[in-house]
Amino acid sequence: MSSATADSQSHDPVPESVRVEHGDPGRSPSRAVVEAVAGAAGVEPVELADEAGIVLYDHFDLDALDRLVASHPGTTIDISLSVPGYEISVDATAVVAEPAR
Predict the structure, then answer these.
(1) Using an 8 Å Cβ cutoff, are 3 and 16 in contact?
(2) Pairing with 65, which of 23, 52, 78, 92 sits 20 to 30 Å away (CA)?
(3) Per the database record, which ranges form the Halobacterial output domain (predicted)?
């Protein structure tokens, strides 16, 4: 994982991309999306809307994402999503979020 500088006010590195595994009890694909986008934005998941201005439900249905991934167990699945400023990739085991290019 590479990193870049967040902005002129902060000297903490912001990850170029964030990978979050899903499938464990308690971590659904939709939860992994929230955590990955928040990590890529450099904020806590509960602060994603307030700090980064991203409300994921405004862009896609997270419950539908969980159902879609769950309906294909043991198969190859590759879903691409985008929200302002970020590209998201969901596969059978993980989510990767990275800044849009």
Answers:
(1) yes
(2) 52
(3) 27-93
